[in-house]
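Reminder to self: tokens first, then the designed residues, so the page reads top to bottom the way the pipeline ran.
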């Protein structure tokens, strides 16, 4: 699992039939210190996340292990919305 922040959306009116009905979000990776990395991915949203939220996402074959993405051509999936996280006893993030 990776930490990321949803920074945008992708609209695709034509797509593989097994991907119909999915919302696609642009996710920018986050370090454990809360700073954005230079990498970003387009991920299927399996949990109802929105722009500005911090999420946990998986990539590669792990992205096809959720109920929503099982056996679908998916390389990244958002599987949790983060409420809070701390590192070394210090709170890094709390959802407002």
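Designed residues (96 positions):
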């Amino acid at each position: 699992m990776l930490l990321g922040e949803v920074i945008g959306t992708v609209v695709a009116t034509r797509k593989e039939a097994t991907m119909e009905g999915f919302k696609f979000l642009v996710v920018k990776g986050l370090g454990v210190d809360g700073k954005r990395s230079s990498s970003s991915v387009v991920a299927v949203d399996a949990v109802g996340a929105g722009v500005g939220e911090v999420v946990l996402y998986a990539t590669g074959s792990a992205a096809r292990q959720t109920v929503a993405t099982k056996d679908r051509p998916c390389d990244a999936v958002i599987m949790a919305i983060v409420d809070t996280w701390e590192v070394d006893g210090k709170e890094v993030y709390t959802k407002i």
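The first strand starts at residue 2 and ends at 10.
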